[in-house]
Amino acid sequence: MRVLCVSCVCCVCITRVLCHTGALDVVSPLDYEVSKEFTLRIRAQDGGRPPLSNISGLVTVQVLDVNDNAPIFVSTPFQATVLENVPVGYSVIHVQAIDADSGDNGRLVYTLLETGAGFPFAINNSTGWIVVASELDREAVDFYSFGVEAQDQGSPPMASSASVSILVSDVNDNAPQFLRDSYQGSVYEDVPAFTSVLQVSATDRDSGLNGRVFYTFQGGDDGDGDFIIESTSGIVRTLRRLDRENVPLYSLRAFAVDKGVPAKRTPVEIQVTVLDVNDNPPVFERDEFDIFVEENSPIGLVVARITATDPDEGTNAQIMYQIVEGNIPEVFQLDIFSGELTALADLDYESKMEAVGGPSTPFAFPPPATALECLGGPVTQCWGGSGPCS
Ligand SMILES: [Ca+2]
Ligand SMILES: [Ca+2]
Ligand SMILES: [Ca+2]
Ligand SMILES: [Ca+2]
């Protein structure tokens, strides 16, 4: 029998049957991804006269897949943004590749490239979903760029890669931090209002409004309104005149607050020492002293101790005593530091019944004294004594 003719029922004829042998050859490239199967009919014709022929039943040619397609990533490059506080396991982005082959030749396995130990992202090998593998911290790393590979399971396998970039966006997860644990300052009590005392400063590791810091005494302690803090600079200023004799030390409490939502705030202690100014004269315990001394008391007897107090501090409160009037002839001696009044002569009741003091009297007993502040301060208080002398 001799085969004379070939016919096929596919639309594009890609095979031929050689006459005489009946061998079926491929005459143009096959592509499993285009046509997986061909269905042919073959006519056999003899060489007689007239020739006789017959047509075969359907001949099916199955095209077998080979791994001739590499995976192709779609919609590259891959870019995503993720908040820094998402939980571990959070799905960030889906990287997807397609492979035109079938079976293992088209079954893809995804892996991350260029990622070392501790890398905070992982990929689901089969789905291509990139997930958070460990906690993110924008303040440590705010941008990741790495590669992803898709490899089919053909033999030999084919692979392709794409780049992925992930931006970590900020969450207000850091409270402001003061540069010091606490602050100390000092200021003289007589400075005018709005005098600057000290400056506090805090930083915040977050970005944008989450990291923008302002300062306030609100919710803290501003010394009953004696101090203000400038919200942007952190400068602490007096708000009115101070009085060391009233409040010598302030323990203030300020806050640094960021502008995140919700805001985070950090307190800080501020100690302000009010420095003394000599703004108080010495004050005698009493306006008048009546001192009774027996007439036959020995010379050198301490007849009285004159005391005054001064609410100021340090040398501003050190008092010296001095008789300023009435001690003529010199009957008494006043110790400049102790205020002890000593009789220098016999006191004779019969000769001096009484001595009265005062600016208008020529003779005073006991004599008026002054209390002087040390360091040559002005005479600030006079003592005018009057009364009977026994
Ligand atoms: Ca393939
Ligand atoms: Ca913050
Ligand atoms: Ca943050
Ligand atoms: Ca004072």
UniProtKB/TrEMBL annotation:
Provide the Cadherin domain boundaries.
21-73, 74-178, 179-284, 285-354
- What residue intervals traverse the membrane? none
Main subcellular localization, coarse class? membrane
Query: So which residues are the signal peptide here?
Result: 1-19
| Key words, A-Z | Calcium, Disulfide bond, EGF-like domain, Glycoprotein, Membrane, Repeat, Signal, Transmembrane, Transmembrane helix
Recorded GO terms, molecular function? calcium ion binding
Annotated compartments? Membrane
Q: Which GO terms describe its biological process?
A: establishment of planar polarity; homophilic cell adhesion via plasma membrane adhesion molecules; neuron differentiation; plasma membrane bounded cell projection organization; regulation of developmental process; regulation of multicellular organismal process; sensory organ development
GO cellular component terms given for this protein: plasma membrane
Query: What InterPro entries does UniProt report for this protein, alphabetically?
Result: Cadherin-like_dom, Cadherin-like_sf, Cadherin_CS
The question of whether Membrane is a record keyword is answered with yes
Protein name (record): Cadherin domain-containing protein
